[in-house]
Every structure is written in structure tokens, then in C-alpha cells.
Amino acid sequence: MSVNRVTTRTVPEEPEGVRTPLRGRDAELAFIEARLDALDRGEGGIIRVEGFVGIGRSRILAEAAASARRRGTRVFEGAADPDEQFVPLGPLLDGLLSGEEPLSGAVRLRDLATTPGQRFWLLQELGDRLRETARNGPLLVVLDDLQWCDDLTLLTFNTLAAGLSSHAILWLVAVRGGSVPSGVRTTLDRIRQAGAHELALGALDDQATTRITEDVLGAAPDPDVLRVARRAEGVPQLLVELLGSLREAVTIENGTARLSAGPPAPRELPSVVRRLDQLSDEARELVQTAAAVGGPVTVALLAELLGRPSAALITAVRESLDADLLTESGDRLAFRHDLIREAVEAGLPLPLRQALRGQAAELPPGSAASPVERPGPSAGRAPADAAEAGRAGPGDVAEADRLRTAAAELAATAPGPAAERSLKALELTTADAPERPRVIAETIPLLWQTGRAAQARELGASALATGGLGPEDEARIRLALARLAVPFDFSEAVRQARAGAALPGIPVDVRGRLLAMLAVGLSMAGEHSAAEQVAAEAWETAAAAGDRSAEATLTTVRSAVSFHRMDLTQAFRQAERAAALADALGVSTSLWVPEALWHALLSNTTGRSAEALAAAEDGIRITREQGRTAATRMWLMTRSRILLEAGRLTDARADAEAASATTDDLGPGNLADVTLRYVMMRVALHTNDQQTARAYAAEARRMRSDGAPVVRQFGSWMLALMADFEGRPDRAMAELDEVMTSPAADRPAYAGLVDPADAPVLVRLALRAGAHERAAQAVALAERLAVLNPDLTFLAAAAVHARGLLDNDLAPLVRAVRLYEDCPRPLARASALEDAGRKLAATRKSEAVPYFDTALALYARAGAERDVARVRRRLRAAGVRRRPSTAGLSGAWPELTAAEIRVVRLVARGLTNQQVAEHLSLSPHTVSSHLRRAFTKLDITSRVELTRLVKHRDSGE
Length: 957
Prior knowledge:
Blueprint: E1 4-6, H1 26-40, E2 45-51, H2 57-70, E3 74-79, H3 90-97, H4 106-113, H5 119-134, E4 139-144, H6 151-163, E5 169-176, H7 182-193, E6 197-200, H8 206-217, E7 220-221, H9 223-229, H10 236-244, E8 250-253, E9 256-259, H11 270-277, H12 281-293, H13 299-306, H14 314-322, E10 326-329, E11 332-335, H15 338-346, H16 350-361, H17 384-388, H18 394-410, H19 415-427, H20 436-449, H21 453-466, H22 471-485, H23 490-501, H24 508-525, H25 528-545, H26 548-564, H27 568-585, H28 595-605, H29 609-626, H30 629-645, H31 649-661, H32 669-686, H33 690-703, H34 709-725, H35 729-735, H36 737-741, H37 759-768, H38 772-788, H39 793-807, H40 810-820, H41 826-841, H42 845-862, H43 865-877, H44 898-908, H45 913-920, H46 924-938, H47 943-954
Parallel strand pairs: 2-5, 2-6, 3-4, 4-5, 7-9
Antiparallel strand pairs: 1-8, 8-9, 10-11
Helix pairs in contact: 1-2, 3-4, 4-5, 5-6, 6-7, 8-10, 12-14, 12-15, 18-19, 19-20, 20-21, 20-22, 21-22, 22-23, 22-24, 23-24, 24-25, 24-26, 25-26, 26-27, 27-28, 28-29, 28-30, 29-30, 30-31, 30-32, 31-32, 31-46, 32-33, 32-34, 33-34, 34-35, 37-38, 37-39, 38-39, 39-40, 40-41, 41-42, 42-43, 44-46, ...
């Protein structure tokens, strides 16, 4: 008897709430069971599960967690979300808080995670809690979608996994295959070095495909149904969704599933629709256009069809690659899977598909935008084959040359793709090939620029350690390593550049660049006399070689020397010239990091704050669009200094936190010491955040022992400020002993200061300690600086302010107040107003009140809570009480700053962090910082709560 019926069931991954059996993963499950057996014996470790989207990573994790629970093992499960990266440590803490037995004290841990400057204590306490829990039985900690984890989660996971390796804790993490953010890549490299076990999930075999088809359809498939199922190419998610699309086209006869009317037309697939919905409008249009065209497509063709320049598609292309919808195929973009392309295309109206295909077909054959396929010399063969055989064929050599050329062309505007091409060229270049050292030297700066500094350093160090390099090859690699070291370790940059320049017989242009980098390293380290001497020699060498890039770098060094000599006007002119030269050459050829950073900082120091801020914002926007991770971070650090000195404390702290969150895999380094750490300390002191101030004071003590004089200078000044904050003026003066008594030739230009506007701060501090001679020394230097730079009003204001404090004279203090009115330094102006008011209050209290009131308003607008409280006390002493000011705050949002309100409202409209960042011209990390603080202040934990709150408050209910 035959039974005919049509299947009508939808085919989700878990039909009717019941999971289909896991097929084709017997070996992987057996391995996990073996590791759970070891865990029962007290052996911990790490398992990393990797595979592309839809391959079944999450299902493997779920099966492992279920098995562990059946054994009585305590399980914590967390997962990251691309739209929730602003919650520090969210994925891990959510896992620890979930389940029937959450980790004890997890609520306190979340509080620590949202409090600035508490990372050390957070790690300590979290480690203690897990260690204590593991003593009572084995633990399985599951963390899914590692590629979406925030930086604090990655840091915590890596630190805890290493620190608790002797305990019965098994870490099971899953990460998407292919390209991942640099911080995730660093974490994966570190756990691999620590002995993590790796499970790479590949496509299912034909037997598993057949069994899943039977599970879903409820009957054994006939050859036609199986032929359709095989189009999923063993990807479980696509297979299940494809089978779901067959529900109206399959009949079951005598226990066999058959197609009733031939293969169905392509349809949208739920997982593809979800991923498309998560894209920005620009990226979604790009993917849809690529789907309509058909096979692998060039960016030039997509730009032509979309009516935009190719450079305008950088962000959209990167977003599409990150979503795992598209992948790189030589010099073209291709869909990760043909079913994905069909599903995207199925969502487009037929007339649109036809129009796009017709437009593409009309392009001239062989043009840059032609859709005709052009396989490379190595088509049809894995790039590493020849390398594994120990020799490269002619095709590999030609392909490597093509890739190097492409990398060089892309370096200035798209360093990410350039780095990948350079790495591929390196794979195709054998160990004994004469050009290999040159390829390594080309690859190092590209890796560093895209946030892979540790990989870059290891590549260079390995080449040097292997030996057998000729002088020129060694010199080029040392030049690349010196450039890499500049942001992280000023002394290491000096060492590499000096060693390279000393090599015999190297080309004059290479030696000139090495000397230029040596001068940069010495200058950034604060060794100005030595920098000036090296720069003079380097200038002659660069001139002989006609090297304009080295000229730009050396002009920056000359600017720094002029700055050290207190000639700020000349320093600014030289910085302008260096920045213009570097801009004309293109950032990829610049030897520094880049010259424009110094120009922006100097613009701010010379009172051109608006110009400096505009340059920093342009730098952040451009480098973010280009994927130049390292430069974006350095621009964030630079902008944090500018915002601090502009009196925008909340924004300065947000940028500093954002830069800290994107810490490169070599660690924060010297540049972070003199920017973000300094900024965080100053903001903490102004806002009376004692815990954060103490945390950064600990960093300052470490900075005091650094090999670079400038880092020691910053550390000394930070410690002096902290001692004064704690009411220990004598200790503050002692902290400055080294920088105020060092030989004149090496002494920093401002006798211990890091900002010339801080001269009054140093004078006030010295007078409190009874160190009148040091106060006089600071005044003399401030006055000399003002005389040498008569066009810079704020230097005159700082000098007069310092003189008024030293002489306890009202007239200079009042004059300083007037001079500061035209300067973009609100905190310095508020300080002068407060000092003038304090002097007046001794004899004429009523005349002091307007000074205090103006100072109070400036401090309140800046968010300087500690200074506000101090001025309120002075007003009360003068017989006046003022109500708390709400300057800069919204009546509907009294808890939030203006910057936080802007971010909150956009998020409540449904924008992702990335979209908010693009809308406000901020970095995603800065958006995350503002949002994290808003969540903490509003006592909410989700976007849903935020949206509800915005609607409630903004409606006036």
C-alpha cells in the first residue's frame, strides 16, 4: 500500500521545539568527552572551536554543556553579541550570573567592571571567586562568539585562563573562522601558545547530509532530493534552511521523500536575512548588488553600479566581509556560499536584478570593472603547496610579485587588504628566496597599522634570529621594527634604528631613513640634544638620497627641538611644513606615526584648539574608514589630550577609555603613558575620583623607572599631582626632584611640567610645600617662555598668573583673568578667577563673589566636581550659597552629559554602535564608552530598557 502526503512543516533547526540529532560530529564529541573525563580528574585547559557561520559551533558548545551537567559539573555559559560590545565583560559576567547556581558575588563583579580604573581589582576578585568555586568541584566555562567580545572580556579570559590553569576549570570557547578583529586574533594566538586544544569544524560528509535530510523531512530522501541537499555543501545551517524551503515541493511515498515538481526556485533563507538586516544601508546595497551581478565581482564594478568611487566602499566592503557574507577571491569579492548569493538575490525584485546584470554586461570587456573572471597564476591550487614542497614554481613567483604590487597600491588607503596580500606573497616566497627579507620588511608595517603589532614584531624578530641576512636586508627589517616600536617603546625604537644605521655598505636612502627614525625615537624619548645631533647627520644623508619622506620626519624632529628650546612659534611652523610634506607623500610612505599627530598636539599647545580638534576628528574618521587601527588609536589618544585641555573632561575620559579599550597586542606602551594615562589621572583629580586617581598613580610609579626621560617626566608630574591631591605638598616636591634638578641640557623645557599652562599649578604646589626657590624657578621659566613667544596670549596669561601667585599680588592675578578670556583653556581661566577671588576675599568679600561665580560656572561646565566643591566652600566662606548648577545638562536627562545624551537618543532609535559612530563622527569605542557610562548612571542594563526610558522622558510623561 502506498501513502501519498505533502509535507507542510517548517523546517527550523529545532522543529517543534525538539532538537534533531547532532550528525557528523562523532569525532569532535568524542574529543570533548575525553576532555570532560580529564576535567573530572582535576585537569583543566582550553578548547577552541572554530568554524564559519552556520557550521555548528554553537550546537557543539550546547552538547558539551549538556554532557557536563549530566556528569554533575558546574557550567557557566555566556555568548557575545555584536550590538552589546559596550557592556564591559558582559558576555562572561552574563554567563557567570546565569543558571541555577550563579557565581557568588557576580553582581559586585559587574559593578567593578563598569567602574573606571578598577580592572586590576576586577581581575583579582573574579579570579578569586572562580578559584574558590573550583575547589568544590570542576567547572566548565563556555563562551560563544568570541569574535564579538569586548576588549575587557578578551583580556579577562586570557588572564584568567592562564592564571587558573592549574585548577579544574575547562574553558570552551567558539570563534568564527576567517578574519577576526586584531584583539581577538591576539587572544587566539596567546591561548594557542598556552596549549589550547583546537577543534576546526569542517563541512559535513555525505552520510551526515543524508541523515539530516531524513531527520528534517521525516523520510529517506530520493536521489533528486539528496541532490538538492548537497547544494548546502555540508553546512548544517544552510542545509536545514534549504530543506525548509522544500516543504511545499516534497511528497512522501512509501517512506521516501521525493520532489513533486522538480527543484524549487531559490528563496530567502532566514539566517541570510538576519545577517543582511544587521548591515548598514551602504553594506546591504553592496551585497545585494554583488548578488544580482552573479559570480566573483571587482570592487570597481560595484563602485560603477552603485555610482560611487571605489574608496567610498571601503567601510561597506569590510562590513560585508566581517558579516561572513562575502569573502576575498584574489582581487575580487565572492559570496561565502552560492546559496547565500541566491538567497540575497531572491530578495530583490526581478526588474532590479535584470537591470543590474544588463548594466554590468554593457561594460567594456577586460576593463577594471568588467565582470569577466580572470584567474591568477596560482588558480586551482592552494598558495602554500609550493612552500610546503620547499620550492616555488614560476607561477608562484609571478603571483607573489603581483600580490606585492597590489599590497603597495592598497597600502595608503586600505592597509587591511594590503596586509593580507603581503602575507599571501610571503607564503608563496620560499625561505631561501633572496627577496624574502624584503617581503618581510614590507609586511611588518602593514600588520602593525592594522592592529597586529605582536605578529609583526615576531615576524621581524624571527628573521633576525634566523641569521644569514645581508646588511641591506637586515637594515630594512630593523627599519620596519623601529617604526613598529615608536608608539610602544621609545627606547626599543632607538635601539633598532641605531643598530640598522651602523650596518656597513647599506644604500644611502635606507641609512637616511634609519637615521631619521633614530632621531624620532630620541626626540620622543626626550633626549633632545642627541636627537638634534642625529637629525643633522640624517638631513645630509636624506638630501643626498632625495628622500622627501625622511625630510618630513626630520622636519618634525626639528620642530620638537624648537619646542624644547621654547620657540613654540618656530616649532609650529616646522610642524605645519612636516605635516604638509607627509600629507603630500601619503601616509603609507611617512616614517613617523604620522607627522600630523605632532602638528595637532602643537596646534593645541599654541592655543589653536579648534584647529587641533578638527585635525584630530579628521584623523580618527579617515583612519577608521581605512582600517588603520594603530593610527586610529593614536588619534584617539591625541584627541583625549586636546579635549582635556579644552575643559571637556567627560569627552576626554571617553576618548582615553576608547583608546585603552583598543590596546594593541604589544600593550599600551609609552605613547599611552604620555597621553591616555596622563589624561585619565587629570580627569580623576578634577572629578574627585579617588580610586581611579590611585590606580593611575600606580602606573605613574612604573613610568618613573622607564628608560625614556619624557616618560619619567610624565610619571613624576602625575605623582606630584597625586601627592598634592592627598594633601602632601612636601611629597609632591620630592616627586619632582629629578626633573627639576637634572642638567640643563637634558632638562624638560618646563622644569617638570608637561603642559606650559600648568605653571601656576606648580607654583601653587611649591608654595604650599614652602619651596619658594622652586616656585620662583617655575615663574622664571614661564615668563621666559612668554617672552620668547609674544604672539601666544595664553603663555602670557600663564606667566602672569604664576607671578601673581608667587608675589601674592592681586594686580597680576586680575590681569591673568583678562588675558585668559581670549584663550581656549577654560580650566586655566577658572583657576585664575578662583585665585583672584581668593585674594580679594581676604579683605573685600563682596568683590570676590563675581570671580568665584564665574569660576564655578566654568568648572561646572567642564564637569570638574572637585573644583566645583572647593569654589562652593569659598563662596560659603564669603557668605554666599549657590544652588547646584545644571550647566550643560538637559532637564530631562540631569544624569547625563550632552555627549552621552546624543549617543543615547541615537541608540534608542535603533542604531547600532557602528552607525552611531558614523553619525557623530566618533570611534565605535568612544560610543561604547559614552553608552556604558549612560547605562551605569541610568541604572539600566539593556537597549530595550533604554528605548523605553527615552520614550518616557522625551515625551514629558
